[in-house]
Amino acid sequence: MNNKKIIFFDISSNNKFIINSNIKSKNFIIFKNKKYLLLKIEISSESHPFYTGKKKLIDITGRIDKFNKKFKI
């Protein structure tokens, strides 16, 4: 197992989390003068409505439009 420190970047809340992970990524980021692997995520506990108590609609990939077009809503 190749466990390394990686930064998960929540693009909807701009929060960063450093954890150990086996995930492979081609992206890197310099954080506090250290080089980390970077994985961008759309939603985390910092931005998810269940944890924040705030309703927020995020559709970065256009999935809602695709669904509406497919079912003509």
TrEMBL record:
Transmembrane segments: none
Gene3D superfamilies: Ribosomal protein L31
Any one Gene Ontology BP term: translation
InterPro entries the record matches: Ribosomal_bL28/bL31-like_sf, Ribosomal_bL31, Ribosomal_bL31_sf
GO-annotated molecular function: structural constituent of ribosome
Top-level taxon in the UniProt lineage: Bacteria
Entry keyword set: Ribonucleoprotein, Ribosomal protein
Cellular component, GO annotation: ribonucleoprotein complex; ribosome
Protein family membership: Belongs to the bacterial ribosomal protein bL31 family.
Subunit details: Part of the 50S ribosomal subunit.
Name assigned to this protein: 50S ribosomal protein L31
Protein source organism: Zinderia insecticola (strain CARI)
